[in-house]
Amino acid sequence: MVTRESRTGPETRKGYRPALNSSTMLNMTSSVEWPAGRLRALHRVRRWAYWALHERPPDVLPPLARGERVLAGLVDAAGAPVVATTVAIYLGGRRDAWRRLGWVELASVSWQPRPGVLHLVGLAGPEAYQVRLAGTARPRLVALALEQFAASVLISVPVWLDGGRTAAVTARRVPGSREVTWVVRLRDRADAEDPEVHGRVAAAIRQIRAETGL
Questions:
Q1: Looking at residues 118-127, what average pLDDT do you find?
Q2: Where in the chain is the domain with CATH 2.30.29.30?
Q3: How far apart are alpha carbons 20 and 30 in whole angstroms?
Q4: pLDDT tens string 130-173
Q5: Terminus of the chain with fewer CB atoms < 10 Å: N or C?
């Protein structure tokens, strides 16, 4: 006669489910070799969850020009909407007042992850804007802003003027368009009305066009 040993431990009771804590889940996931496709799907779900929590889309959009498309939008830490398009970034304010900053109108775009601040510096004067976002991870809007700004800069060359003064000539283009905008930044108190400055800058632009075909 064959007998079976009876086990009355809690793990053998009908309907028993072991308790899972964070360490148990960590051990389980680390010991399982996930297929590459499933891992990519998991990363997409995690990114979507982060965007849903920290990149809430704005309730309103700015008025757009013909052919302009929205790339990304979110609400900053102060509750103001921020929208990035193919040609500009829009900073929302009170009463649906929008400040439009074209990509070709910006001197620099930078991101500080630790405070979670997007810095925008305009070409016209010492205009600087800080967009404080929730969290320290880089949102999709920030990545697009950096990409669009970089794509708007075609070439930049220094121009040497008399007296040790300098200028910078930059060819800018709205991403996706053919129109080139020439931006001249004078340094060392160079006078824009000075014929010598005007002639050097014009010569530099002609040389860039001849060498690049812009």
A1: 84
A2: 70-151
A3: 15
A4: 999 876 567 889 999 999 999 999 999 888 888 777 888 899 98
A5: N
Position 129, amino acid: Y
- Token reading at 112: 């500080």
- Report the C-alpha gap between 214 and 211 in whole angstroms: 8
Cα–Cα distance measured from residue 67 to residue 206, given in angstroms and rounded to the nearest whole number: 31
Q: How far apart are CA 165 and CA 186, in angstroms?
A: 8
Does the pLDDT of residue 10 top 50, yes or no? no
Per-residue pLDDT, 196 = 84
- Asked whether the predicted pLDDT for residue 84 surpasses 60, the reply is yes
How far is it, in rounded angstroms, from Cα 148 to Cα 84? 9
CATH class of the region 70-151: mainly beta
